[in-house]
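Worked Example 4.2. Read the sequence first, then its structure tokens.
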Amino acid sequence: MTNKMYFGALFCTGLLSLAGCSSSSFSDSVAPSSSEKPSHAASVITMNDSYWQVESIQQGGTIDYSYVTMSIDDGQISGSTGCNRYTGAVTLDAVNEGLSAFTVDNIALTRKMCAPALMKQEQKFVEALNETQLYSIDSGTWLVLLNGDKSETIKAISTSNSTKTTAPRASHSEKQPTAPVSQKQDVIDTKQTNNTKRYTCETPSANITPLEVSSLGPDTLGLSLNNSLHIVQLSRSASGAKYTNNKNVVFWNKGDDAILSINSGRYHCNLLK
């Protein structure tokens, strides 16, 4: 009886010892070492294939609807100055929690003539790019460029690129949307950035004056009249399509005819062919 009790106690002690060893080995294999910390590289935001709309140049605003843009990808920067297209080489470090290096070289532009205000803004924008040495990302939304003195040169907001957006494909059985059969007003095709139409207009005082209508971007027109530029944007109304801004300028067109209203003055225009 004594021997049975002795071997029973010895057997239980052995089981407890094995359980202790097994528990210790399991915890050692799961617990991370102090050197195995999450890598910050996994959370780094990339600037490749990024698109930005400029909201501020040298801490001043941009001309309404002029659409100054920046596209950054694979060591290249390109976009619109609000007048011409531009391209250049960009060198930048990966985004981190502080400031990162950002330099632009070899900027080349197309040579389209624009209104003086737009050309002045273009020059200011190009100079700001050339001065830039640093950048940071604010709240994952804003790109802030700075010069060597850490003064802001350009501030831009992130924009989505429609060509990069994927959507479910429609099956063959689904009906595709069709364009409206007709509309009361004609929409000028602003996809052609070099598209310019010329009109002769009768002024409110019955004089004749020329009008140039140029595309400045998606759904945006520049109206050059009497050495003044009026920038208007496409809007929809009960009467059809029209172009307006917040300065009491309204432009309608239908076929070869157009009407331009500036404040209380009304111009009746005909397209030159």
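Now turn to a second chain, presented in exactly the same format:
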Amino acid sequence: MRIHGGTRGGRVLCWAGHPGTLLAVAVLAFNDRVGKRAWPGALTGKISDAAWMLVVPPVLALALSALPRLRGRRAALLAVALTALTFTAAKSSTAGAELTSRAWSLLTGLPSRTVADRTDLLTLPVLALSWWLWRRSARPRPWRRTLALATVPLAVAAMTATSPAYERAPRLWDDHGRPVLDNGRRWTTEDGGLTWHLDTRSSAGPAPSASPSEREPLAAEGRCLPEEPQVCFRQRDYELPVEISRDGGADWQDEYLPPGVPRPQKSLPPLPWETATAATATATATAAETGTGPTASTGAALVPYPKPAELVLAPVPGGHTVVVHYPSVADLQVRSQDGRWSQVPLPPRQEPKGLESGIGLLLSCALASFVIGLAVAFTGLNARRLRAGPQPGDPDGLRWMLALRQAAPFGWLVGASVFLGRDGGPWLFWLASALLMPLLALLWQRSPYASPGDGNTVAIMAVSVTASCVSLFGAFLGTAGHSWTAACWTGIGFAVAGGALAGLIGWTPRPGLLYPEYPDWEPPSEHDRSDGGADDRSDGGADRRSGG
């Protein structure tokens, strides 16, 4: 069905190119990359949710339009409904948020985190505005289709690149009596925390959860020295001092607060064992003798504290030392057997090497962004050309040329990832890039027989590549990890998805027309003109006789 010179799928494209949708894309990109960093809070979060409601339905409708019988109004309705359902599921419960995060990470290849917040459901009415934009897109605006082809990649990047991923904080825990520190690499100590070496014995799984309900025993519960069961240590909060008890956990006094940490002006509620009866206190002392903490046998539920603590006992000849980690302090706090506290520097993080650091990282991410920009642009151009169907004068093997044009960026990314994965390989990457760039230029040509009003193909390609490069560059630096390999393989995923979408759209049957197309007009032959003249004369005579 044709609508104002376009197809139903063309109207969806006009929806994506509507000024209201484009404004939402700009707001979403700016707010997620600048606003949330400069002004963190509920307001910037709600602004992102509202803009997301306007951006997702048109992009989702474009993807659904590749399926038969899902163009136009049906695709738009389904896109709005899916947006409402997924957003509601993600914001209503923790399980829904976790499932959404995993699905989105699997789809985009980028780490994501969705937070369940039912107040975000207040932005659902914005979908009514999105539907209003869909209805307004029925007006004939040929330039909107051109603008959409160039800005849809930017919309996709704005959807995927949300809050930046921050560097993981070090974690300290007890692994079967051995202190383990994880700051990107795992370390352990054999001298009570004074020196640290790489740990090869602990499991390679993730670090224990920081949730108080999932860590047993907790530093806030207290840890008692096996050689002196009546002496216990605890750390109740990251902003509170380490406390000591010399009677098995019955009474606690402040022991140590690292320099530079301000003494808190708040107090936490008493722990369950601090109000225990005499019988419970006896059970607590019994548990302390086993070294499992003063609350091991009380069975009382712990009070949820705002921040978990990290305090472990490190075995040394003749006893144990106490090792404490304050995230706001750059050093570890170690208490020796004679009661003296000292600060020990954290082990060094794993520093990136070669192209994974400094200007090399920026350059590699820029190159990956440019290649993905080419893949996205070629995807849009190829889909646009294939959807037009066979045209008179098309060269033989046009589909093969389009497929090769789509595969060229994909091959570039694969080659680069293989070359840069080997020592001494970067020069091969530069050689492959120098050879493939002219090949890309030779393969590309302006699409013949482009539909009127679709705009200049060269302009579409230039704007699309630029928008993709700028947006994806920020996404790589913020979320794709600090390595070229991660950025490169993420780019391969985008290239594969783009190529699959282009092929699917290209091979989907064209939508039928509302009215049948008439054959081209041909001038009448001499025989037709003579027959037509005789008929006109006979009809004219009969009319005159009847009129007379």
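Notes for the reader: The two ends are 51 Å apart (CA to CA). The mean pLDDT is 67.
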